[in-house]
Amino acid sequence: MQDKLTLMIPGPTPVPETVLKAMGRHPIGHRSGEFQAVVRHTTEQLRWLHQTKSDVLVITGSGTAAMEAGIINTLSYGDKVLCGDNGKFGQRWVKLAKAYGLDVQVIKADWGQPLDPEAFKRALEADNGKTIKAVILTHSETSTGVINDLETISKYVRTHGKALTIADCVTSLGACNVPMDSWGLDVVASGSQKGYMMPPGLSFVAMSERAWQAHQQSDLPKFYLDLGPYRKTAAQDSNPFTPAVNLYFALESALGMMQSEGLEAIFDRHARHRAAAQAGMKAICLPLYAAEGHGSPAITAVAPEGVDAEQLRKTVKEKFDILLAGGQDHLKGKVFRIGHLGFVCDRDILTAIAAIESTLQSLGLHKGNMGDGLAAAAAILR
């Protein structure tokens, strides 16, 4: 059916009609008082979401722009950093850090496994000369459906005393608790097309005071992503370059919806949907890819045995107009991923699980009784 596509991927995520209508307003001047009022309001809302008193700056760009800005604004050529790598986006951090000439020590875990906080602790404690300048990691590893223990790792970084914590929270912010100030995070990067319930186009960089102190010493090349001008103009409710005006309208609307729901309710909803998706897959004998107890609230990765994951995804889309995410790199064809991030409700979870069951049955691959997955998910949601 035309115009019926349901997104059950980790981004872009579904966008509420209220947000779409806000985005459809006629543009206004980005140097006008009217737009300054929008910037002022969204700045307050962003601090609420990040649970911080620090700066949260808005860049017209993707989440990767925020990640790159976090590195080039706080570090210098040759700085030693620890990079966590347990999936495709951890690998991206490593590539990004090396591209700017940083001395990268990689702390790895197998795909599907969480990063070991104790490995970071050992590396930090061994750094007697305090040469490690930053610990860089992905909170919610979207490629594998794993959530990493950012809180504990950040605690070890604070004990080190010199290093910064730079975190990709692109699919965790707005899905689970990421209290920037109480966890002592220094740089938090995120993107609009995830938990923010918006189309792609905006990225967000939150910077602690320690990060700003590092910014004064940073010598990596930067111009458009130099956060100094962003901070200066944000204090005047403005932006150093032409911003995506209509996406600011969407941002104000989406954050308003989130504030009405409340942080705890948002986190509870995502945790409930994770539990329902996991229960539904287990009930029909489809193994989860992420290690038990470490599943992301944003996405559930499933590794079906004896099933071509790409064929299953294709059939679900053709029959039900539901788009699931596929496996990345060596996981292509071996894993499919159910997104439950942002503007997702109980009905979406139940519909996706029913569609997966029906598709398995049509392919002659359903194990157990038809409806077992749906019943298991419904029991969690009930």
TrEMBL record:
Keywords of the record: Aminotransferase, Oxidoreductase, Pyridoxal phosphate, Transferase
GO biological-process terms attached to the record: glycine biosynthetic process, by transamination of glyoxylate
Enzyme class: oxidoreductase
Top-rank lineage group of the source organism: Bacteria
SUPFAM superfamilies on file: PLP-dependent transferases (SSF53383)
InterPro entries for the chain: Aminotrans_V_dom, Aminotrans_V_PyrdxlP_BS, PyrdxlP-dep_Trfase, PyrdxlP-dep_Trfase_major, PyrdxlP-dep_Trfase_small, SP_NH2Trfase/AEP_transaminase
Pfam short name (any one): Aminotran_5
Residues in Aminotransferase class V domain copies: 12-328
Residues binding substrate, per UniProt: 337
N6-(pyridoxal phosphate)lysine sites (modified residues): 194
Single GO term (MF): alanine-glyoxylate transaminase activity
EC number assigned by the record: 1.12.1.2
Cofactor(s) this protein requires: pyridoxal 5'-phosphate
Family to which the UniProt record says this protein belongs: Belongs to the class-V pyridoxal-phosphate-dependent aminotransferase family.
Protein name, per record: Soluble hydrogenase small subunit
Organism listed in the record: Prochlorococcus marinus (strain MIT 9303)
